[in-house]
Write a structure and sequence with these properties.
With 668 residues, the protein is α+β, with helices and mostly antiparallel strands. It is built from 18 helices and 25 strands. The protein is extended.
């Protein structure tokens, strides 16, 4: 408490003589917290029961293992703190007379504001300056100033007093008045904190009601639309319904069973026809009774960003013009030979249901938080292994980095091979991130938020269960089937089978490496080989030239800079096509083609000219060494399928070429 407060008599609170009641929202406590001193400077309440630093807070939230307290507003907003229920008696002191504390503190800051105003009036009166100047008192102020000047023996000293008042005394007092007024406003609003907390509690109730209404609408089918896309015999009466965990993506599944020549899908019905084919149906929904979730793409396509300088990598092979459906999730249901599509505006995660251990609280877990939101969960056992590995890697790199610095003095401009940037060793960020994990149990102050995050994952599965229960009860899609009450464990186990294709897939060996595969094919290249990749490399080089031209053009004020550019009248090298000159030692190949002559009108000559480009071998793909079907090794492995945009243009073009679907005129 500052010196200005010592003249006041603190409010004597009978805290020690009362037994603390059970915590409730709206109760006020004294919080023992040294860290809040800077935040609450100038706003300290009157009546603290002890000499140690404390601030005054109201319970705004009560969780399963904590109470959360909120202070009145201060210059940084407001302070909050979470105290575990087991630590309430240790860290908090109950204040039953909070109304008197707030009233006395408010009166204190009002008095401070008035006292500072009185000081301002005293200074201005002594110097003959009125703090309020209006049209009616201009003459009076002028007269007062003349009297003061006439009675001042030393005009220079008076001038210095005016300067000091102008530059130091009055600005300091005005700043104190501002702080006092802010404190008055904060403590006047303090009584609203319990009301705000209660209103938030009511919002939770409304949220629960909305969720209940939503669940009823799911079961009743208000958010669904089912279309039959294939007819046939249903599955056997006792056949289980297999639920596929992994979200599927239409473009990726089509590429797994790619047919040379390309495919085009302009609406969902065309994909339905593709999926209805026996081979494709068994690929995506492999069980007699099966349910899977689909989206059009893993990453939504930005249609507005495409132009003549940047073509979609797969436009020549597989086209999905389904902009309106890109963000929707489709549920496909198979019943024997029958196939149905349920269109829903619900949003689902990348997995239909959680992993087996996601809600297994019997296993100790750790959690990494970002404020009050969950960043990531891990089992304690796996986290301990990762932490030990990261620590060993970091300490090894740290020792090597320090030794490298000793061996290479005065070479700060040389890259330290063991450094991780900002003066740290490699692996520092990973190790520090793993150290941020904390045990996930009732001792964690954000246990409720972390539990809610896990529950949200379970809630998504419950939505699926509600939809399926509604379908089983109200539609013939899965008929014939025995009566089902999916909320009963024995019925669920008898009716459904969870296929953990999204988490329990055991990879067989190392994932396929496209660059390694490309290098193997290119190692057999010669002057007679057919290549792919030269056109894309040429378009990138043309984009560099175009960007440089735009940078030098003062009239071009746009920020658009193409990543690939194809000048008018210049088709670029044939792709796929042969090279004109193969340079095995330099690992390069030279290509030539015909383009239109630039500015031919000026010279009256429109004959085409020959253009050339030399391409590094690691940017090319030797089609001559490609074998039909090789692309499948990359798409059938779930670890690499998501990155198909990196290699699909090469592999599918090669597949088309070896199957005779591409134009082979370039070989002539």
């Amino acid at each position: 408490m500052s010196g200005d407060d010592q003249s006041l008599t603190p409010f004597e609170s009978p805290v020690d003589s009362l037994e603390r009641p059970d915590p409730e929202v709206g109760q006020w406590f004294w919080v023992k917290d040294d860290d809040q001193g800077d935040y609450l400077e100038g706003l300290s309440p009157i009546g603290a029961p002890g000499p140690e630093p404390m601030w005054f807070g109201c319970i705004s939230k009560i969780g399963s293992n904590f109470v959360e307290l909120r202070s009145p507003d201060h210059k940084y907003g407001h302070s909050t703190i979470r105290v575990l229920l087991e630590h309430v008696d240790r860290d908090l002191i109950f204040e039953p007379n909070h109304t008197q504390i707030i009233a006395q503190t408010l009166a204190h800051f009002q008095k401070k504001a008035n006292d500072h105003l009185a000081e301002v009036k005293q200074i201005t009166s002594r110097l003959g300056v009125s703090p309020r100047v209006g049209i009616t008192n201009l003459q009076e102020e002028s007269g007062t100033s003349l009297v003061v000047l006439s009675e001042t023996p030393d005009p220079d000293a008076y001038k210095n007093q005016l300067v000091k008042a102008h530059e130091e005394d009055l600005p300091d007092l005005f700043e104190k008045i501002r702080h006092a007024n802010e404190a008055v406003a904060s403590w006047m609003a303090a009584e609203m904190i319990p009301l705000i907390a209660e209103s938030k509690g009511l919002q939770k109730v409304l949220g629960q009601i909305e969720k209940r209404i939503f669940n009823v609408s799911l079961y009743a089918g208000l958010t669904e639309q089912v279309s039959q896309i294939r007819d046939g015999d249903p599955a056997h009466y006792d056949e289980k319904i297999c639920l596929m965990q992994r979200m599927l993506f239409m473009d990726e599944e089509c590429l797994v069973n790619y047919q040379a020549g390309g495919m085009s899908f302009n609406d969902i019905s065309q994909f339905d026809q593709w999926l209805s084919e026996e081979e494709n149906l068994n690929q995506c929904l492999p069980f007699p009774r099966c349910v899977a979730l689909f989206r059009v793409r893993r990453n939504v396509k930005d249609y507005n960003s495409l132009d003549d300088g940047r073509r979609e990598p797969l436009d020549a092979f597989i086209k999905f013009h389904l902009e309106a459906a890109d963000r929707l999730t489709f549920m496909y249901l198979r019943n024997g030979d029958q196939l149905y599509r349920l269109s829903s505006e619900l949003e689902f995660g990348l997995k239909m249901f959680p992993d087996k251990d996601a809600n297994d609280f019997s296993k100790p877990m750790v959690v990494r938080m970002n404020g009050d939101s969950v960043k990531k969960f891990k089992t304690r056992s796996s986290w301990e292994v990762l932490l030990e590995e990261a620590k060993a890697e970091y300490e090894k790199n740290k020792a090597l980095s320090e030794q490298w610095e000793k061996d290479n003095p005065d070479t700060s401009w040389v890259h330290n091979p063991y450094g991780g940037g900002v003066g740290r060793a490699k692996g520092a960020s990973r190790y520090e991130g793993l150290k941020e994990y904390q045990p996930f149990d009732s001792s964690h102050p954000y246990f409720d938020e972390a539990s809610a995050e896990l529950s949200e994952t379970i809630e998504q599965f419950n939505r699926i269960a509600l939809i399926l229960q509604g379908i089983l009860d109200r539609s013939p899609i899965m008929h014939p089937h025995p009566p089902v009450k999916s909320w009963l464990p024995e019925d669920f186990e008898r009716t459904f089978e969870l296929i953990y294709d999204g988490s329990n897939v055991i990879p067989n060996g190392e994932p396929p490496d496209f660059e390694k595969y490309r290098a193997q094919l290119n190692a057999t290249a010669d002057a007679n080989s057919i290549f792919i990749g030269q056109e894309d490399y040429w378009a990138e080089q043309e984009a560099i030239k175009e960007c440089d031209r735009r940078d030098r053009d003062w009239r071009d004020r746009s920020n658009y800079r193409p990543r690939r550019y194809r000048p008018y009248g210049n088709p670029g090298p044939a792709d796929p096509g042969p090279c004109d000159q193969f340079k095995p030692r330099a690992c390069k190949a030279k290509f030539s083609w015909q383009r239109q002559r630039m500015r031919w009108q000026r010279y009256g000559d429109n004959a085409p000219v020959t253009a050339t480009i030399t391409v590094p071998l690691d940017r090319l793909f030797n089609v001559s060494a490609y074998k039909a079907g090789d692309f499948k090794r990359f798409y059938q492995d779930h670890r690499t399928r998501a990155d198909y945009l990196k290699w699909a243009p090469y592999l599918l073009a090669a597949e088309d070429y070896v199957n005779g679907k591409a134009n082979k005129d370039s070989e002539a």
